[in-house]
Design brief:
elongated; mainly alpha; 181 residues; two-stranded antiparallel ribbon
Length: 181
């Protein structure tokens, strides 16, 4: 059983480390930024009509600053997630330590979400009313895609439990109740 859990953890860590690289590949377009050799990143102005060069430059600056603050948070999140997995597969998991690590992860995710929203609102301030409509529509579509992804994850978790699986809470050895999602 422990060998299985270690293998599963190794696979999860590998997938977590590969995901950012795969996501980065999707953002790269054929042209380069200002004639240089660095690839340009799409998505900053995509779908927003009639942007001026000044607006585009400001948006790029905002995105760059946001990236500088997000990278350390993403790294911390990956470390905390790996630590949580390690705690969960230990010989005798300590529920207090697990809950503490979950709180740390939740705090990091909240910080990241606040920074994303702050960046979006900064960009939104640069736009004309017509451009804001397109930007807001794109933002709402992104939220819908995120909600759809979360719904699919929940459905997969339910399917993994298999036929006849109970929705009753799981009772751990130390008699604490943990609700299933």
């Amino acid at each position: 059983m422990k060998k299985y859990l270690n293998t599963a953890l190794a696979m999860l860590l590998t997938a977590a480390l590969m995901a950012p690289a795969a996501a980065q590949d999707k953002k790269v377009v054929k042209k380069t930024v200002s004639g240089g050799s660095a690839p340009a990143v799409t998505g900053v102005h995509e779908g927003i009509p009639d942007l001026t060069d000044a607006q585009k430059d400001q948006m790029k600056k905002i995105r760059l600053e946001a990236s500088k603050t997000m990278l350390p948070l993403q790294a911390q999140l990956e470390v905390k997630s790996a630590e949580l997995k390690s705690l969960l597969i230990s010989e005798n998991p300590n529920i207090t330590a697990v809950n503490s690590k979950i709180d740390e992860i939740a705090s990091l995710r909240a910080q990241m979400q606040k920074k994303r929203v702050s960046q979006q609102l900064e960009i939104r301030k640069l736009l004309t009313p017509e451009q804001r409509l397109a930007f807001d529509e794109r933002m709402l579509k992104g939220l819908e895609r995120m909600e759809d992804g979360l719904r699919r994850v929940r459905e997969m978790r339910i399917q993994r439990r298999g036929p006849g699986a109970s929705d009753e809470p799981v009772i751990m050895e130390n008699e604490e109740r943990i609700e299933l999602e």
